[in-house]
Amino acid sequence: MINLFMDDYRKRPEGFALARSTEECLMLLRECEVELLSLDYDMGPDDYSGSEVAKRIILEKLFPREIYLHTSSLQGRREMYEILYPAIPADVGLHNGPLDPSRLLEIASGAVNR
Fold this sequence. Notes:
Layout: E1 2-6, E2 17-19, H1 22-31, E3 34-39, H2 50-60, E4 66-69, H3 74-84, E5 93-95, H4 101-109
Parallel strand pairs: 1-2, 1-3, 3-4, 4-5
Helix pairs in contact: 1-2, 2-3
C-alpha cells in the first residue's frame, strides 16, 4: 500500500510516492493499492489537469482510501471536488484541501495513516 502525491512542481512529501504527470498517477492507481492520494490541478502545459484524474478515478473505479486536493487553484479544487463528491463511495474520505502538517508528520514518521 502506498501514499501518492501528484504534482508537476512541488517536492514529494516524506512517505509518499511521487507522480509528476497525470499518466504516471493513473498508472500507479491502476497498479498499486493506494491509501492516500493528494492531487494537484495544474499539471503543466503539456499534460491534462487533475480533473482528468478525478474523472478516471470514477470511470475506472480507482478509489484510494482518502483523497486530498492540495492544489493552489481554487477553481481547480472546486472542479475536482464537484467531479468526485457525487460518485465517491461512502468508505472513501474526500478532503477539499491539503493535508494538515500534523498528518504529514505522522505519515513521514511511518505512523498508521488511518
